[in-house]
Specification:
Distance between the termini: 96 Å
Shape: rod-shaped
Structural class: alpha+beta
Number of strands: 5
Strand order of the largest sheet: 4-3-2-1-5
Mean pLDDT: 78
Length: 171
Amino acid sequence: MSTQIKPIGKESQPQQGKQEGQVQPVSGKVSEAQREQAEKLVMEDKLAREVIREASAEDLLKAEQYAKQEQVKEVPDPLKGLQEGRVVHYLTPNDWRPNARGQVRAGLIVFCYRDSYGKPTGTVNLALFLNGPMDTGDMGGAKTRCLEFLPGVKFSAEAEAGCWSWPKRYI
């Protein structure tokens, strides 16, 4: 039995002038039915590719709309905007001076602790504004201490004794 080996060269390269998607017979002995079947398969393939392309564009649009909706639903980061110089509230703990226990005082963030990525951790150093002699018990008149430094104060979303929180917004 003899086997023919097809040479690699000009014969195996596509000829110029052939359009993409045209079926070219391997040999001259292809029946008309086989040619029609091959052309039909090529057309079905083109149609399938077009449907996939349209579906992909449609799916991409739906995914984009869904992402926008989810963006609106995102929970806001409570530490967003946390930086030195911001004014926050500090709830005095119960072991403080008798007149100042459980009172809200304004604090100025003088240092904000950050993680290795530069994102605030929620722990800050505060310069706490006191209510003069009512908080300190000093009756020194004009020399009454009105500022206290508090290092390493933790964040609390709701007012919690010994922690800082954002001031409530009243509309």
